């Protein structure tokens, strides 16, 4: 960021004696700091000149990053030019990142063009920057990136950006990708984006994702549904009692995370049918309990010691590492939320 220098107007004091009293009089009233905006303008010009003309790629990268941190929209044209023309890949990507940090819609048209760049890292950073700006005019290019980019990393960030922007059509496109994208990494990002948007029409598709083959996707869907609150309770309760396979346990996780009285009562009924009391489990959590009980006890009675124990579990020690990966992820999330 730019340094900001201030000039202090000195107080002029006159000492007057009257009836033995000394009165201090400030000639200028109250002293005030005055700023010189032209110094910031000069610093901005110097950074732009460094970005566009310095022979050192390292200096140009530094200038781009500094311009992004300062956030002055007057730097946008220079950053756009650098992201288009600089011969150094690091400078180009740093310029794109800086445009996202500035966060002004003036950069959106250019960034949507970068989404078609041959360089994968440029496309990734463009998607990230568009999410940071959050302007609706980026939606259509992001839909295209989510549906068609060959890189799962770009698709993941496109999903995240759409979650930041949010729209009814974004929900539709995200649900399509949740069901069709072959990359678990992308489906994780899509589920998280749907949770961020919070549209109730995504509850059903997210609950369907409880059957995803990848444990990370299933856990992200659990978290996303829980963010829907009361609207998700009824379909989750239905899944709790009538869902296929392992989906009842995942429904229990979501209900427990929602935390409403009705939701917790249903979880307790579900566990009671299995002869399980979470309070008792919390007192002996290192015993050989089922994985779903571990997740539930952590959510309700978790301690830092318990979370550390669960996060240190070795998945190769279990017959079904996919299920126990959910325990480890839940513990890591628990610790991260309280760090």
Question: Could you describe the 3D structure shown?
Answer:
With 339 residues, the protein is mainly alpha-helical. The protein has a domain at 233-339. Helix content is 65%, strand content 5%. It is built from 19 helices and four strands. The chain has helices at 37-53, 57-70, 76-85, 89-102, 108-114, 120-133, 139-148, 152-165, 168-180, 184-197, 203-208, 215-226, 233-242, 247-258, 261-272, 278-283, 291-301, 304-311, 321-337; strands at residues 6-8, 13-18, 21-26, 33-35. The protein has a two-stranded antiparallel sheet with strand order 1-4. A hairpin with a 2-residue loop joins strand 2 (13-18) and strand 3 (21-26). It starts with 5 loop residues before the first strand and ends with a helix. The relative contact order is 0.05. The model is unreliable at 1-35 (pLDDT under 50).
The largest pleated sheet is described as: 2 strands, antiparallel
- Mean pLDDT reading: 89
Poorly predicted runs are: 1-35
The count of strands amounts to 4
The amount of helix comes to 55-70%
Number of helices: 19
**Widest sheet: strand ordering:** 1-4
Q: How are the SSEs ordered, and which strands pair?
A:
Elements: E1 6-8, E2 13-18, E3 21-26, E4 33-35, H1 37-53, H2 57-70, H3 76-85, H4 89-102, H5 108-114, H6 120-133, H7 139-148, H8 152-165, H9 168-180, H10 184-197, H11 203-208, H12 215-226, H13 233-242, H14 247-258, H15 261-272, H16 278-283, H17 291-301, H18 304-311, H19 321-337
Antiparallel strand pairs: 1-4, 2-3
């Amino acid at each position: 960021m730019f340094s900001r220098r201030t000039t202090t107007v000195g107080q002029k004091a006159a000492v007057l004696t009257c009836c033995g009293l000394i009165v201090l009089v400030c000639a200028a009233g109250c002293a005030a700091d005055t700023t010189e905006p032209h110094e910031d303008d000069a610093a901005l010009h110097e950074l732009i000149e460094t970005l566009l003309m310095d022979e050192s790629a390292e200096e140009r990268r530094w200038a781009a990053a500094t311009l992004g941190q300062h956030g002055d929209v007057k730097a946008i044209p220079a950053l756009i030019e650098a992201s288009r023309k600089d011969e150094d890949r690091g400078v180009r990507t740093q310029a794109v990142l800086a445009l996202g940090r500035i966060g002004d819609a003036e950069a959106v048209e250019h960034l949507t063009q970068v989404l078609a760049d041959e360089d994968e890292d440029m496309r990734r950073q463009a998607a990230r920057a568009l999410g940071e700006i959050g302007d609706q005019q980026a939606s259509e290019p992001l839909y295209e990136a989510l549906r068609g980019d060959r890189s799962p990393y770009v698709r993941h960030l496109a999903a995240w950006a759409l979650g930041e922007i949010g729209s009814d059509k974004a929900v539709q496109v995200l649900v399509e990708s949740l069901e069709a994208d072959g990359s678990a990494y992308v489906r994780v990002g899509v589920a998280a984006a749907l949770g961020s948007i919070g549209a109730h029409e995504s509850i059903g598709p997210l609950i369907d994702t409880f059957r995803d083959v990848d444990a990370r996707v299933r856990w992200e869907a659990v978290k996303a549904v829980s963010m829907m609150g009361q609207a998700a309770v009824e379909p989750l309760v239905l899944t709790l009692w009538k869902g296929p396979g392992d989906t009842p346990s995942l429904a229990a996780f979501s209900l427990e995370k929602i935390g409403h009285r009705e939701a917790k009562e249903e979880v307790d009924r579900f566990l009671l049918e299995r002869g399980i009391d979470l309070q008792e489990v919390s007192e002996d959590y290192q015993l050989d309990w089922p994985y779903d009980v571990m997740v539930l006890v952590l959510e309700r009675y978790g301690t830092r010691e318990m979370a550390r124990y669960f996060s240190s579990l070795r998945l190769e020690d279990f017959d079904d590492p996919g299920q126990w990966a959910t325990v480890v992820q839940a513990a890591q999330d628990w610790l991260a939320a309280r760090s």
